[in-house]
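Hi team, as promised in this morning's meeting, here are the two structures we talked about. I've kept the exact order from the run log so nobody has to guess. The first one is mostly here for context; it's the second one we should focus on when we meet again. Sequence first, then the predicted structure tokens.
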Amino acid sequence: MTNSIFLDRTTPPHIATLILLAGLSALAMNIFLPSLPGMAAWFGVPYALMQLSVALYLALSAVLQILIGPISDRYGRRRVLIGSLILFLIATLGTLLAPNATVFLIFRMSQAVIASGMVLSRAVVRDMVPDAQAASMIGYVTMGMSIVPMIGPVIGGVLEEAIGWQANFGLLFVLGLFTLWLTWADLGETATIRPVTLIEQVRKYPQLLRSQRFWGYALAAAFASGSFFAYLGGAPYVGTEVFGLSASGVGALFALTAIGYALGNFLAGRFSVRLGMNRMVLIGALVTVTGLGLLMLVTLAGVHSPYVFFGFTSLVGLGNGITLPNANAGMLSIKPELAGTASGLGGAIMIGGGAALAALAGALLGPGSGELPLVLLMLASAIGSLLAILWVRARARALGLMA
């Protein structure tokens, strides 16, 4: 692979471009979360309806990721990313001009096209480097992108209190314009484009779906991120309604989980090559289960504090930061020639499960409920991730591979 030259679109992209692409996708998911209660009041609808802006966004992201992977394998990463960014900008304008909650939710769902940034940043990495290095580089990419969602809810909460919730989407539009320019100027094509139809591409899905290790990695990632998506769906309510925090206060405490995620990504980048993908996924799953198990015990003991709740959920970020880069690299390693397809299909499984858990978190939390239902839901999902990677390790041993 040709060496990367920054702002030269005939060479592979600089890592900063991949970070921004993935970061914009993450930011679009969470910058407005502290504003959800205020947005519900603005449109005059229940919080549960406005919370669908998280679940519906994730659901459409899951559907789109099934298509994004094979389309990018067929037509190239560059074309798909530039087209997705243009559609994202149109959808973002729609959220700003929406006259009611229904129109807002339609355009909010349309913003999910930016999921291509998260899917294809991983696929581009796999195009550029082999397996062990891919896990490490994905770790560094996601560490960098975690800085964006770390400060996103903080900025979102401040903007909502100072200007209004619309400022969040205005910022997304400006950042989308910059990312479109950077992608056009820097991202050279990395895929080996093959002259096959999309139908032929989709027919290759069974090659992945028949692999027990692919399913193990996909479920490890899905359940690990499921804990986080349930948190995204329920934590704004817990922060504002259970603990009585302001929007900016919720945003500031959200940063604890993102700091944990950034640290986990750093550890993944630092140790994945040395310890191996499977061992790193296992370590991450154990960290998450331990953190949520302790939070459950403390909550059952009657300790109710926003600092305790958000402090322990930072371990969810830490565990996921270790688990996800390695689980994603594992999915892409099953069939390297189908890296885009694997990234999209695995992402769809991961995001689809996240959408369901985010919606369930919103349904479990209502007047009179505390934080315990959310904690139990997150813990159950984390245990699922632990069981999945144990399955992968057992399968690897049976095949005589590195467990």
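And here is the second protein, the one for discussion:
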Amino acid sequence: MIDLLFIVSSTDGHTFKICEEMKDQLNESLEAQIIPIEDAPELNINNHKKVVIGASIRYGKHNKKLFDYIDQNLNFLNSGEHAFFTVNVVARKPEKNEPETNPYMQKFLKITNWKPAKLGVFAGKINYSQYGFFDKHIIRFIMWIGKGPTDLRGEFEFTNWDKVKLFSKTL
């Protein structure tokens, strides 16, 4: 039985990076596995003591596969000390970087029947050079509205890694 399963819904890979950091912070006696949300339905979730689901935001939404997976495994997820965290660029703002104040976390909690035992919110990353033409310009426009970085040559990471480490210690 694997002690801790990280299930990741990531658009550009940064949520995976956050999970890898959490896994590195764990006690060496714990066995942990990280898998993408696309592979999660193939696993028997009951073979894991604790599940942590991390999900990024793109255009104001979590991936639909995330909600499908939660619905299919709701009884298990509501039966233990499982955790959920969201990764979004809005969380770069101090007034929006806690579960109680982050609009995407609040939206998630309203539309799902899962009541995670632990919640986390982490600021994400923008890497304009990684995006295609459409995404690059839409994200730039969103950043302009939200007073974020708009330099198309830039890569901007907002993640507070100390906060990630603190969260991992609660697992």
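Starting points for discussion:
The mean pLDDT is 93.
DSSP finds six helices and seven strands in the chain.
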